[in-house]
Design a protein that fits this description.
The chain is of the alpha/beta class. The chain has 9 helices and 8 strands. The chain has a domain of 174 residues: Vaccinia Virus protein VP39 (Rossmann fold). Strands 1, 2, 3, 4, 5, 6, 7 and 8 form an 8-stranded mixed sheet that branches. The protein binds S-adenosyl-L-homocysteine.
Length: 253
C-alpha cells in the first residue's frame, strides 16, 4: 500500500490493469447467456480504467455501474466511455468492493475481471451474492492453477502473494458451496497475459522510472513486476486466470 501512488502512475495509462482481452470478455458474455436480453443492470467490480466495462456497454442493452476504489481510474474510464459514445450506459462509482453500493436483489449481473482477489475469491462471492437477483449471473476471472501439481518456485511465489490460488475444480466448489450453480468456465489464453497486459506494462517501465528519477521505491515496483513477468514466462503452462460464470441459486444458499 505504501507504493499505491506509484502503482496508480504505472497502471493508469494502460488499456487494462490485469490479464484479459476483448474476445475473452465477449466469450464470457455469451457463456453467461446475456446477449439478446434487455434492460440489464450490471455492476463491474474493480473495473480499473474500464476495459471490460466498455465491452459490456457495447455488446449489451444494459446499464453498467463501474465500481473501483481508485478515483483516478474512474476518471480515465469516464473519458474513454465518452470517446466511445457509451457514456450514457455507464455510471462510475468510487467504493470498496467490500461495501458495494447496491440494494438486495437489484442486479442481473456482477462482473469482475482480475479484481476479486483483493478481498479474496470466497469472501467476494459470499459478500456479493445478496446484490444479485435470483438467477442473476456472477462472472469473475481469478488466478487459477492449470495442473494438479507445479514447480516449487512458482507455487511458493503465488501461495505467498495470494494464498487462495487453487485449481478450477476447487474454485467451482467454492461457488457451489456459496449458493451458485456454475454454468461456464474457460482459462485465459497466453495472449491475454502477454499482449493484453505484460508487454504494454514492460514498455512503460523506462518512462515510469525516469519520471520518478529512478527512486528506490519506483525501482522496487518495477522489480516486482519484472519478477512476476519472468515467472509467468517460464511457467505459463501451470498458471492462468480462469473465467468463472455462475448463476445465483434460489433461497439463502
Ligand atoms: N477489471 C480491470 C482492473 C483489474 S486490476 C481490468 O481487468 O483491467 C484490479 C482493480 O481492482 C484495480 O482497478 C484496483 O483499483 C481495484 N481494487 C483493488 N482493491 C479494491 C477494493 N478493495 N475495492 C474496490 N476496488 C479495488
Amino acid at each position: 500500500m505504501d507504493h499505491l501512488p506509484l502503482l496508480i502512475d504505472l497502471h493508469l495509462p494502460a488499456h487494462r490493469q490485469g490479464p484479459g482481452g476483448e474476445d475473452e470478455t465477449r466469450r464470457a458474455i455469451e457463456l453467461a447467456g446475456l446477449t439478446g436480453r434487455s434492460g440489464l443492470r450490471i455492476a463491474d467490480v474493480g473495473c480499473g480504467t474500464g476495459a471490460s466495462t466498455l465491452v459490456l456497454a457495447q455488446m449489451l442493452d444494459a446499464h453498467i455501474t463501474a465500481v473501483d476504489f481508485l478515483p483516478e481510474f474512474l476518471t480515465a474510464l469516464n473519458s474513454r466511455a465518452t470517446q466511445a459514445g457509451l457514456a450514457e450506459r455507464i455510471t462510475t462509482h468510487e467504493a470498496s468492493m467490500e461495501a458495494l453500493p447496491f440494494g438486495p436483489d437489484s442486479l442481473d449481473v456482477i462482473w469482475s475481471e482480475g479484481a476479486v482477489y483483493n478481498m479474496g475469491f470466497e469472501a467476494g462471492v459470499q459478500a456479493w451474492r445478496p446484490f444479485l437477483k435470483q438467477g442473476g449471473v456472477l462472472a469473475v476471472s481469478e488466478l487459477t492453477w492449470l495442473t494438479h501439481t507445479r514447480p516449487a518456485e512458482l507455487n511458493a511465489h503465488w501461495e505467498a502473494a495470494y494464498p487462495e490460488v487453487a485449481t478450477a475444480s476447487a474454485k467451482l466448489s467454492v461457488l457451489e458451496r456459496n449458493g451458485y450453480t456454475p454454468v461456464g468456465y474457460f482459462t485465459l489464453p497466453e495472449h491475454c497475459w502477454l499482449d493484453g497486459y505484460y508487454r504494454p506494462l514492460q514498455q512503460r517501465f523506462a518512462t515510469f522510472l525516469a519520471s520518478h528519477q529512478h527512486s528506490d521505491a519506483a525501482q522496487a515496483v518495477v522489480e516486482d513486476e519484472r519478477h512476476e513477468i519472468d515467472l509467468y514466462e517460464r511457467y505459463r503452462q501451470f498458471v492462468s486466470y480462469g473465467f468463472y460464470i455462475a448463476r445465483k441459486n434460489p433461497g439463502s444458499a
